[in-house]
Each structure stands twice: as structure tokens, then as C-alpha cells.
Design a protein that fits this description.
By secondary structure, the chain is mainly α. The chain has 13 helices and four strands. Helix content is 75%, strand content 3%. The strands form two sheets. A two-stranded antiparallel sheet has the order 1-2. This is Branched-chain amino acid ABC transporter permease.
Length: 377
């Protein structure tokens, strides 16, 4: 059970990180990116190939993020001066192009060249060897600190809605709904944080390398989330939102809209590249088929579920998506008498139905704001 919870935590956190990059591009800037998997692919392959050459893992991951950001720069220069639909077409084509190139190209694995179709295996991952007891206790301390900060942040986030409700009597109903949403989401995330903390402590003390990877990933996710929250509330973030709503307005104010779009595309790509490194470390061996376009659209589901333009909503969307995936994998086979192939199709059909209901009932997502809705633009 502990190992399974650690596995789910790593999967959820890596795709939450991946989705935060997409949310920056689309939720805050309005850039339609249907090939987000391209950034993850470059980040993953750059990281593992450099690590096989003896480059330290941290530098390898940063290099992967830089290569992914460079891809965003290239795509941006080619498409951002055109209409939005051109960006969508180019990105989905780029994602498939990179996957097919990797599949058919020979890769420098160690001291030899190997066909990309055979994948890359036996590359180093963080904390793969058992550390000393002192270092394990330090890691448990870091995990404890992270859990405390997470619970405090959730409490403060709920308190913000309470203060808003008390101050704004003219919008009592909407503020009451906001408080109820935040309270429910806060409780769910707090329970999950406690469960992950307990599993992490057990996994770190008895040492499971995946627990070490989970700790590093959660720290990176917390750091990226914190910096993004500061950025989107800064003047830079307000310009991105203005571009999303109507880019002619910031243009009229003398802002270089193209440059801001390019920055958003590059930063979102770099975040996805870091997520690619953790995705590769979790798998232990990567193949081109691990980076199918379906992963991009799964990430879109996460952003839409949680609410575009909301970083906490994006993380919540990843939690809901993987909770649904885990529950249906374990429970549905016992309820629905279908073979494996049909069961997979049924699961996709159900989540499609859930999305349809959500779009009717709450098109802005669970935590999204209706006044900031970008769907249909």
C-alpha cells in the first residue's frame, strides 16, 4: 500500500508540474498548445542522455529544461505572429514530429549508438542508493517541513475566502459558494497531503528509492508553484491575462505582446521539460511510445477540470484525474464484466461524460473563475 501511494504521488506530482506549464501558456496567456508533450519529450531524453554521459543529474535536468525552452522559442518565432489556430496546428505537429524522429534516429547511449525504437534503459536516477541514517532523517525532516507548509498554505487559502465573504456583503451568494469550494478542496488536499506524508516517512526510513524521488519531485513542484503564484500576480502576470482577454489593449498601452507570449511559451516549455525528467526517472526506461499525444490531452483534461488560470485548480485537476484513474482500474473490473480492451474504452467514455457534465454545470472548472473563462474564445 505504501509503495502504491508513493507511485501515485509521483505520477500525480509529475503531471501536475507538466500541467502547470500548460496552464501558464493557455490558462493565463491564451496560447492554444496541443503539442505540449513535445517539451516533455525533449526534457526527458536530454536529461537521461546527458546523465549517461556522466553529467550530474541536476545539470542534466536543467539542460533538459533549457532545450525545452529553446523549442518554445523556435515555435514562438514561427507562429506567434499568426492566428491562434496556427499555433495549435504547429504544436500538435511538432509533438508528433519529435516523437517520430526519436523513434527512427540512433541515440548516443553510453559509448555506443542505439536505435531510438529500442528506448533508453539503465540510466541513473536520484537517490538510487541507500543513504545513511542521518541523511534519511534529514530527508524526513524536509518532507515534514513541506507537509507543514502545505497545510498552512491550504489553511490560509481558505481563510482568504472567509475574509472576502465577510468584507463583500454585496456578493454574499458567490462568496459563500467560493468558501464552500475552497473548504471542500482544502480538506481533500489536506487529507491527501497527510496520507502522502505518512507513506513518505515510511518509505524514506525503510529506504525506497522511489520515496527519495518523490521527495525531490514534491519540493520542485512546491517551488515552481510558489514562483508561478508570485509571477502571475505581478505586473508581468497581469499583462499575460490582458493578452488572454484582448491583446489589442496591451498593444495600445505600448506592451510588446509578441515578447510576452514568447516568454510564456518558453517558461511553460521549461516547466514541462523538468516534468519530463521526473517522468523518465519514474519509469526507469523510456521509449518513444511513452510520449504519445494522448498525454497532452490528458493534461488538458486536468487543467479544464481544476479551472484554467488557477494554479491550485491545476494541481487539483491532476489529483482528480489520477484518483479517477486509480479507482477505476481497481474497482471497475469487479463491477463491469468487460475484457481489458473494452474496459479501457469504457473508462475513457466515463471521463468524457464527466467532462460534459462539468462543462454544463461549471464550465470554468472546479476552482476557475467564470469572468476569466477562456473557453470558446
Amino acid at each position: 500500500m505504501v509503495e502504491y501511494l508513493i507511485f501515485l504521488a509521483i505520477s500525480t506530482a509529475s503531471f501536475a508540474l507538466f500541467a502547470l506549464g500548460l496552464n501558464l501558456q493557455w490558462g493565463f496567456t491564451g496560447l492554444i498548445n496541443f503539442g505540449h508533450i513535445a517539451f516533455m519529450t525533449l526534457g526527458a531524453y536530454t536529461t537521461v542522455l546527458l546523465s549517461l554521459k556522466g553529467v550530474p543529474l541536476l545539470i542534466s535536468a536543467l539542460a533538459g529544461a533549457m532545450v525545452a525552452a529553446l523549442l518554445g522559442l523556435i515555435i514562438g518565432f514561427a507562429t506567434l505572429r499568426l492566428r491562434e489556430d496556427y499555433l495549435a496546428i504547429v504544436t500538435i505537429g511538432t509533438g508528433e514530429l519529435i516523437r517520430l524522429v526519436v523513434n527512427n534516429q540512433e541515440l548516443p547511449v553510453g559509448n555506443s549508438w542505439v536505435s531510438g525504437a529500442f528506448g533508453v534503459q539503465s540510466y541513473p536516477i536520484p537517490f538510487s542508493t541507500q543513504p545513511s541514517l542521518f541523511f534519511r532523517l534529514v530527508m524526513i525532516g524536509l518532507l515534514t517541513l513541506l507537509a507543514v507548509v502545505t497545510l498552512f498554505t491550504l489553511w490560509r487559502w481558505i481563510r482568504t475566502a472567509q475574509r472576502f465573504r465577510a468584507a463583500d456583503s454585496s456578493q454574499r451568494l458567490s462568496s459563500k459558494q467560493e468558501l464552500a469550494s475552497r473548504l471542500g478542496v482544502g480538506i481533500v488536499l489536506a487529507v491527501l497531503a497527510v496520507a502522502i506524508y505518512i507513506s513518505g516517512v515510511i518509505g524514506l526510513y525503510n529506504y525506497n528509492p522511489k520515496a527519495g524521488l518523490m521527495l525531490v519531485l514534491l519540493l520542485i513542484l512546491a517551488l515552481v508553484f510558489w514562483r508561478l503564484e508570485i509571477l502571475v500576480r505581478s505586473p508581468w502576470g497581469r499583462i499575460l491575462k490582458a493578452i488572454r482577454e484582448d491583446e489589442e489593449i496591451p498593444k495600445a498601452l505600448g506592451k510588446n505582446v509578441f515578447w510576452y507570449k514568447l516568454q510564456s511559451l518558453m517558461l511553460g516549455g521549461a516547466i514541462a521539460g523538468i516534468a519530463g525528467a521526473f517522468f523518465a526517472w519514474q519509469l526507469g526506461a523510456i521509449y518513444p511510445d511513452n510520449f504519445q499525444p494522448q498525454l497532452t490531452f490528458d493534461t488538458w483534461i486536468m487543467v479544464i477540470l481544476g479551472g484554467s488560470g488557477n494554479n491550485i485548480g491545476t494541481i487539483l485537476g491532476a489529483v482528480v484525474f489520477f484518483a479517477y484513474d486509480a479507482i477505476t482500474r481497481e474497482v471497475l473490473p469487479r463491477i463491469v464484466p468487460l475484457d481489458e480492451a473494452r474496459l479501457g474504452a469504457f473508462r475513457i467514455m466515463v471521463i468524457g461524460f464527466i467532462l460534459m457534465v462539468l462543462m454544463i454545470w461549471r464550465p470554468q472548472g472546479i476552482l476557475g473563475k467564470k469572468e476569466e473563462l477562456t473557453l470558446g474564445k
